Structure formats: structure tokens, C-alpha cells
Amino acid sequence: MTAIALTIAGSDSSGGAGIQADLKTFAALGVYGASAITALTAQNTRGVTAIHNVPPAFVTAQLDAVFADLKVGAVKIGMLSRAATIKAVVAALARHRAKNIVLDPVMVATSGDRLLAPAAIRALRHELIPRALIVTPNLLEAAALTGMPIARNEREMETQARAILNFGARHVLIKGGHGKGRDSVDLLIGQVEVKRFSAKRIATRNTHGTGCTLSSAIAAGLAKGLDLVAAIAAAKSYITAAIAGADRLKVGHGHGPLHHFHAFWRKS
Asked: What CATH number does the domain containing 103 carry?
């Protein structure tokens, strides 16, 4: 049986994040990717200039079409933009009994542009997070979800992750990529256990789409039948190599994309 993952997210016209990054990641990791687009963004490596939201009823139509025909092994959720879209996605996930839901709570782009309406945060907290197998916030997103200051160390990261668990998530992977220090440390927190994933921090400005890529890599692993810890470990390895290869690409004039196909393209 072919491993299939579904991404529910916004489109990035420059190809570095969102649906485009998710589908590249699925393909690079040997998983067939399906998609439901929640918003169209006019953006490039320098920033977002416009957002056109897809009507919630059409988001529902996309999801119903995919689930009616494809055996979806994992679902990655990214940009949802509005509360009405979140409610439509929640209803579809429940109706189709979706499993292995990886929620990347996209709020702000790498460029600093806001991608989630403030009124939608409550719906995200109380309606969507409880359906997630795992939530993958970065430090800025974790602070926004919990109302706390940005975490400065692993102790504060764990505190915020446990606050997000209280919203109903089964696991939280809080990402330290926006932190400082020689290593980039992510913490996986469940109801009791804490597992640490560490990689050497790579000096590059080309980090557009890192959150999308990591969460979709986790979903790819789950779709292939890996357990959660193994899926995260494989995803961490993949994204570290994709960041390390990012400077091989010459794309745009701002925060460039990762090299999703670093293992396949010839070095030149």
C-alpha cells in the first residue's frame, strides 16, 4: 500500500513554504502527497503582500473529496488563517475519523507577516489542538498560544509545552530553532515523559519554510508507519540536512528556501 499524507495549509507563491514545501517534503521522503488549500498568499522570500482566503465550504469540499477516495495515513495542518476555516477543518477531521494529525500552529511567517487572525487563536486552542496527535510550535508560537513571554531556556520551553498539553493535545514538540546557542534543541513532551532532539545550529539566512517542512516530515514518517519518536528523529535529521544544503540554492533576495531535494540534486 502506498503511504499517503494530506496537507491542509496555505499556498506560498514563491514555493518555499506552505503547501509547496509540504508536498516537496512528502515527495523527498517517499510519500504520496495530497492537499487541501486553505488560503492563497502572494509572497516571496522578502514577505507576504496579500492573502486570499479560500471559502470554508470549498475547504470542506477538498477534504471530503480526498478522504472519500484516498487512504490517508497522516494529516499535516498548517496555515488556517480564520476561525471559520478552523471550524470547517475540525468538522471534516471528525467526520472522516482522520488519524495521525500533526498540527503546525502557523501564526507568523519567517518574514514577520501575520498569517493567523487574532480571533482565530481561540478556535485553534480549544477546537483543533485537542484533535492533534502532536502540536509543533516554535518559540514565538508557543508564547502566543500560552500568553507567556518567549521561552529563554529548556525549562521555560517545557513549561509552555505543558500549558499547550492542557488544551488537549497528546504531545507537543516545542522547537528551539529561534533560540540561541551552539545547538538547536527541540523538546517532545507528552503527559509525563520529555525527550530531547538536538542538532548543531547552522548559520544561514535561508530558513523560509522550516516549520512547514519539519511538521510535514513528521507526518510523512507517521504515514509510513513509524512511531512518533522515530518519525520526529527522522524528520529532525531530514530538516537539518535541508537547512545545511539551503545555501546551495540561489532563490530570491530575502530568507531563501530550504533544499528539500538535497539528497537528489547534483552538487554544482
From this structure: 3.40.1190.20
* 259 domain-assigned: no
**207 given a catalytic annotation:** yes
- Considering the domain boundaries, does residue 163 fall inside one? yes
- Catalytic one among 16, 18, 176, 209? 209
Establish whether 211 is a catalytic residue.
yes
Active site residue 25: no
At 121, phi and psi to the nearest 5?
A: -65, -40
Question: Is there a catalytic annotation at residue 175?
Answer: yes
Tell me the pLDDT tens digit for each residue of 114-161.
667 777 888 999 999 999 999 999 999 999 899 899 999 999 999 999
- For this structure, is 15 an active site residue? no
Domain around 221: 4-248
Total domains in the fold of the chain: 1
Q: Is the dihedral of CA 21, 24, 27, 28 positive or negative?
A: negative
